[in-house]
Amino acid sequence: MVELKRRPYKKELSEHVVECHHVTREADGLRYIEMRVLNLSKDGIYTEELTDLEACIVAMTGKVDVTVGEESFTQIGQRQDVFDRVPTDSVYVSSGKSFQITTSDEARVLIAYAPSNKSLPTALIKASDNTVEHRGKYQNKRTVHNIMDDQSPISDKLIVVEVYTDSGNWSSYPPHKHDQNNLPHESFLEETYYHEMNPKHGFVFQRVYTDDRSLDETMTVEHENVVLVPKGYHPVSVPDGYDGYYLNIMAGPIKKWQFHNDKDHEWILSRD
């Protein structure tokens, strides 16, 4: 079994570009998702040529310029910290295209990838284009920024969302899964979580498990860790005194988020 939790590292790709995470299909046991997290300092330049992958470049913090062919998007990004709790800007790039990210100051970007051979228009996804949802009640409250949901016409396979979970609350809860290609009842989507904490020395717990418990792993997840969810239920618990943030990438054979709740815990949804 591939290890599900990944800690950040520092790999200098160029003088002003440091890679903190790079999840690939070949190395990490996923079929539909890849991801990369980059820290760029002043005058940082990162260039990539996509072949069989589409990509969504999320300006997590700071401001960046993104160039795709003849199109340029300047000074995108809306926050200095993810816990500013406002949506940010992103750029979608389809397979077969090249892109360049540059910055005149410090910035962090997350690049989400999914296999695709479809040629689609490059798109700037403005912060104002994000739909914002407030989900849950009691100790199950979270705020969702939908960058590209399963109804978005922008991407072929990619779904990208940000989630804020307040202190003492649960998220991705009650536990749900989407690992069966059985529409309209359930879809097959792999998923990754990129986590941040406020304050940064905090932690959350995340469990990934299947009905038969052939996969059953509970992890202490710290600031900037990544969790892979190849299958199974995947709830997150945020301790008192800390707030949690994660960015989800989801992708599968069909871009449809149709999940199945764990029947043992679904009852909490019907509480008064």
TrEMBL record:
Gene3D superfamilies: Jelly Rolls. One of its GO terms (biological process) is inositol catabolic process. Pfam families: KduI (PF04962). Its EC number is 5.3.1.30. It comes from Vagococcus bubulae. The keyword Protease does not apply. It comes from the Bacteria. This is 5-deoxy-glucuronate isomerase. The keyword GTP-binding does not apply. Keywords: Isomerase. PANTHER family: 5-DEOXY-GLUCURONATE ISOMERASE (PTHR39193:SF1). The lineage of its organism: Bacteria, Bacillati, Bacillota, Bacilli, Lactobacillales. GO terms for molecular function: 5-deoxy-D-glucuronate isomerase activity; glucuronate isomerase activity.
